[in-house]
Structures are given as C-alpha cells and as structure tokens.
Amino acid sequence: MFPNVPFGFVTQRGGNMSACRKKLCMIMMLNAFVCLLVCVSWSLRRHKGGRHSVRIPSKRFWHQQEKSKSFWNKEQQRLDFIFNPIVNSLLSSDSLVELPDWLNDSGPPDPCQPDEKVPMQIMDYNSLPKGFQDFLLHMRCRTYPMLINQPHVCAERPFLLLAVKSMIPHFERRQAIRETWGRAGVVANRMVVTLFLLGNTSPVDHFPDLLGMLDHEAELHKDLLQWDYRDTFYNLTLKEVLFLDWFSKHCPHAQFILKGDDDVFVNTVGIVGLLEGLSEKKAKDFFIGDVISDAWPNRNHRLKYFVPESVFEGRYPSYAGGGGYLYSGELALRLHNASRQVVLYPIDDVYTGMCLKKLGLAPEKHAGFRTFDIDAKYRDNPCVYRNLMLVHSRTPQEMLTIWPWIIHPELDCQ
C-alpha cells in the first residue's frame, strides 16, 4: 500500500487514521453504556410495578438425599455426608441445610461393641450365615489389638513388599512360600520383604489351639503380623484395612506391594522386572491384576460370595481378583486414607475396588495375573510360568516344583 515507506515509519496519513479509529471506539463504548443504562432503568420500572420481578425460590437449593433401602448403602450415605466438605461447611455456617433423621448415628458409643440395632435394619438378617451376621454387627470397628508386630522389617526400604493373607493353621503354605517365591532378601538385585497377615482363631470356628507353634514360627522367621480379630472369610476386608494402617506407620517407603493369598504362585523375578521398567508417572497410580468389570452382587445364598439386596444394592466397581494384585506404595498410602471414607464390605477385593473408585481410579488388567488359573494343558509347562506374574491356586508341593523353573537359567524357552 505504501511501497516507498519502510516498516516502522509512521506517515501523516497513518497518524490521522489512528486518531479516527480511537474516536470511533470511544463513540461505540459510549453507545453501549447508554444502552446499558436504558436496560437497567426499564428492568427496575417493571420490578417496581410488580410484574416479572425476580422470583426468590421458596425451596432450599440443597435436596436431601433419599434414604437407601439397603443397609450398606445407607451406611455409606452417612459416611458421604460426614466426609463431604461442602455439607460440613454449610452445617458449620448455620445454613438452612438439615440432615434427615435417618442419617443421625444410632449405633453404640464404642464402634467395636456389637451394634444390636443391625438385626432390626436387615429384614432377612436371621437367614444370613453366622460369619456374615458377625461381620454386620461389628462393621464399624476398624481398630483391633496387634498381637505380633514386625515394626522394623522395612528398615532397608524394600523395593517390593510381599503381603500374604494367611491363617494360623496354614504353616505348610507359609513355609513353601518362604522357600520359593516369597524368599526374602535380594531378588534380581532388588530388596524384597515378605510378611504374612493373620487374624486370630476362635473356638466357635472349630480351630485347634496352635498359638504355641505360631509364637515359635514368629520368633524363628520374624515375618508374621497378627491382629486380635476373628479370622473369617467375611473379615478379609478387615485384614485389608489393618494392613494399610500398619503400612502407613511402619513401611511407607516401600515402592511396591504385591498383595496375595497364601495359595497363589508368584513369579517374583518377573514382577521385579516389570516394575523396574515403570516410569515415575506410571508408578503413581499403578494398580494391576486380574480385573473384573460390570459385576453384580451374587444373590445365590448357597455361595460364599452371596450378598442379599437388603445389604447391598447396585453394581460393583471394577476390581482386581483378591487372589493377588500389584500396586505402588504411594497409592497404598492414598488407599489408606480413602478406606476411612468407605464402609467395610464383606468381600475384600470388591472393597478395594470401592476405595480405588473413591480416589477416581480403577485397576488395570494385566494378562499375567491368572486368579482363575490357566488351562489344564499348560499347567505342567515350565515355560508358561516364565510369562505369568501370578497364578491361583497352587499347593505347597506345586510351588516347590514350579519355582526352579523360574530361577534356573538353563531352562530354554525360546
């Protein structure tokens, strides 16, 4: 447009054009301001005349949550209110929010005393298995005395902590694990620590008195953790939350945790190799296993996983099969905090899925975790186990057979 004028040189004509633009902008802004005044004035006149005035809602903006018909869901609704920061701030600010009567706590002052009101809240309570009834009566209790502790077992900050769910009579299983995949010390140049998680036995469950043998085992191996609660299938969730609490106090620097039953076989060498390749970002929310998705509660009262609709309604979140799963120590600390906001549930792996969901996470499926076993035709193939991370279930004798297949370098699996 101005071929003879170099860049940056303002001509007289350009200066006049800039001034014009400024005047035009000022005129447009003035017109907009006048329009705004007219609109406000018109609105005020209509409001004063009583027509189309702003209506103040007669109802409170906070809608009280409808009471669930299922016992667990109702308990969870109560916890959600307790831990909801928005509700707490509204209540503390003397707002119009009021909690419905059914959310008020009517349990015993001591949460570890049996809640005698539970049977009246579950219509088919008397038809439930005795262990299930016991769980429901003590569902709010989360603190139990520790009988055997190993407070210094993680002094060397293990890379991998193997936390194995066991029971007092399972001496043979624990010893087989110690001699195979749970051998503590340095594995593949990484520090590995093994712990067995135990509750207590009760005469009503028809267990013999084995405490003398257990004390000897604890002194000999120094790898047992035991709490004084009734060790039943329905209390496996309690074992989970007690372990997370112990971990947060005594082993918070362990980088990874493998949590599994005492009848699984674990390729510890393969696990360490898998973990060494993780980035720091990936490790933060790391949780893998044999994932079950879109599952509903089992309503068959003949199965041990039976949960009636009177106790729980809805679909389960995605969860990893409780036979064994692998997650980061950092995530374990967050799960510990999340578990305080989730009501105990009688199926431990589902409960862990609930805690993950509370954190906005879900477990990741890994093909190497086979909690429902592998095809029979592959079970005696040594090379198959080289590519697995965990398989359920195996006897102590089978563990002793399989472990050499993992550690012997002369095995050719090309």
From TrEMBL:
Gene3D superfamilies: 3.90.550.50. It catalyses: a beta-D-galactosyl-(1->4)-N-acetyl-beta-D-glucosaminyl derivative + UDP-N-acetyl-alpha-D-glucosamine = an N-acetyl-beta-D-glucosaminyl-(1->3)-beta-D-galactosyl-(1->4)-N-acetyl-beta-D-glucosaminyl derivative + UDP + H(+). Its EC number is 2.4.1.-. GO terms for cellular component: Golgi membrane. Transmembrane segments: none annotated. InterPro entries: Glyco_trans_31. GO terms for molecular function: N-acetyllactosaminide beta-1,3-N-acetylglucosaminyltransferase activity. It is a single-pass type II membrane protein. PANTHER family: BETA-1,3-N-ACETYLGLUCOSAMINYLTRANSFERASE, N-ACETYLLACTOSAMINIDE BETA-1,3-N-ACETYLGLUCOSAMINYLTRANSFERASE 2. Interacts with B3GNT8; this interaction greatly increases B3GNT2 catalytic activity, independently of B3GNT8 enzymatic activity. Belongs to the glycosyltransferase 31 family. This is Hexosyltransferase. It comes from Eleginops maclovinus.
